[in-house]
Amino acid sequence: MAISCSVDRDTPSSIMAISLFALIRTSTPSEMLQQSCSAAQTGLEILRTRLLPSTVIRSACTGTLQLKEPLNFWCGGRVKPSTKDARPSEPVYEPATGRVLCEMFPCGPAEVEQAVQSAQSAFKTWSQMSGMERGRVMLEAARIIREQREEIANMEVINNGKSIFEARIDIDIAWQCIEYYAGIAGTLAGQHVQLPGGSFAYTRREPLGVCVGIGAWNYPFQIAAWKSAPALACGNAMVFKPSPMTPVTAVILAEIYAQAGVPEGLFNVVQGSAETGSLLCLHPGVAKVSFTGSVPTGIKIMEMSAKHVKPVTLELGGKSPLIIFSDCSLENAVNGALMANFLSQGEVCCNGTRVFVQRDILEPFLEEVVKKTRGIKIGDPLQEGTRMGALISKPHLDRVLGFVRQAKQQGATVLCGGEPYVSEDPKLKSGYFMSPCVLSNCTDEMTCVKEEIFGPVMSVLPFDTEEEVLQRANNTTFGLASGVFTRDVSRAHRMAAKLQAGTCFVNTYNASPVEMPFGGYKMSGFGRENGTVTVEYYSQLKTVIMEMGDVESPF
Ligand SMILES: NC(=O)c1ccc[n+]([C@@H]2O[C@H](COP(=O)([O-])OP(=O)(O)OC[C@H]3O[C@@H](n4cnc5c(N)ncnc54)[C@H](O)[C@@H]3O)[C@@H](O)[C@H]2O)c1
Ligand SMILES: C[N+](C)(C)CCCC=O
């Protein structure tokens, strides 16, 4: 650890102006290679950086980091913001402290054009490589992520607010995803079909071209990996737009791909909000849009993509049911309910926030779940013992607290939490923390039971019979995930078959193996991420028909 946390603890009022480049580059800024992009004449300064070996800073402290480096990335390097026609920068906050971490410069039409051109240029090379060749480069990217796991996880924590414990898992899932699709790249193949008279036909699995990825803020690095890994494995290039609230780690992924040896411009990052995202969706040079975010934005993405008949993948929100039968292991069910509600401060799309509990075990369930929820350690997300960090922003925190207030007004009982959490640590006093909340006496009509809260709020609802709970669980426009706790195997399969959701967790919740497809039913979206099926969403099939004889014509 070249600069340790103790430096800051000794001088708590000082801000260590550590640059992100200091974390990941091998040279000083003056030594940095600065080139103009050969792919697109950007007229902007492209800064090519390389990741540091493990002797560099392994961690930064909460409340110390300031990032100065450009966050846009194309033509193989970070791109300095334009001096003319620049859009005003937007502050990016560190959720645990409320401090400004960096400034994000949104991309306008000119920058989006450059990024798309950069991707188009790289696509020409990448799409002509064999799957094995592509897979080898991706394996190297996965290896670098493993090597830089701690640095990337720290960055994720500082930018997103989740605990370091969880961020490490997110980074692991990201490299596993890239490794998985690296393996699949070499297996991509068409089909050969014999036709009459010695003629034959075959299919070619071809890439789509430049794919756009648009991400949400809850899993910034993981979402960038989930979209880029299958896209790149299939031979596509990508322009990725992270959420404006979490712009930091997608750029690190871009640097890692570059260091691993992808062609310059293969994976690009453009920063910005709705305007930048719209420019990407409407760009005629973009072949596909993969979106993760809310339902209302997903609808707009689909509308915009329709203009050029672009295929879309939509990973949207949810209000998933978790159904706990009285024949379950109560201890596992309580742990499952916590996993289903309080990971990443409850900011998880597939969370099982409608917890249906069979009436005869309602009381012991509530007693245990409240006891364990009260024991969740909230605090500095970079501390090892912390299990709940800060929510993403002050407006989002206020919104989540508003849902709790409204639930009380509508008759729910707050059994624990649901309050702003103020840490004794002075540096966290302006952070966006709240205590995890369990609501009882909920009914299906309450807002807290119907709407996605995207915060640490669990609504508990009693039920009596299997038929009744199935009907209530499916009575929603969402369909992302579902969960069942029972020891009855037949019932488990019956429920899994009848629940209208893209995933059903049985006697667990929020497990996320990269081998398994993830995605929604109903308004939670369509298309899938992870698993072999995702190849279908990032490639197209061409049929080639070969006549070996003469052409028989009726004319
Ligand atoms: N199903 C999944 O895999 C999944 C995963 C994570 C989050 N989510 C969902 O995401 C939501 C929370 O994330 P959020 O608040 O960032 O969502 P959001 O819809 O506000 O934004 C998502 C992304 O879309 C961009 N965007 C916003 N308006 C746009 C427009 N008009 N055109 C193009 N891009 C636009 C944003 O800048 C951001 O990058 C929740 O509903 C959650 O359930 C779903
Ligand atoms: C990795 N999890 C926990 C399954 C979350 C997937 C992304 C949803 O927000």
TrEMBL record:
Keyword presence, Hydrolase: no
InterPro entries reported for this sequence: Ald_DH/histidinol_DH, Ald_DH_C, Ald_DH_CS_CYS, Ald_DH_CS_GLU, Ald_DH_N, Aldehyde_DH_dom
Keyword field: Oxidoreductase
Coiled-coil intervals: none
Xref: CDD domains: ALDH_F9_TMBADH
Domain Aldehyde dehydrogenase: 89-544
Keyword Oxidoreductase: yes
UniProt-annotated catalytic positions: E315
Pfam family, one: Aldedh
Matches recorded under PANTHER family: ALDEHYDE DEHYDROGENASE-RELATED
Sequence similarity: Belongs to the aldehyde dehydrogenase family.
Name of the protein described by the UniProt record: 4-trimethylaminobutyraldehyde dehydrogenase A
Native source organism of the sequence: Huso huso
Lineage of origin: Eukaryota, Metazoa, Chordata, Craniata, Vertebrata
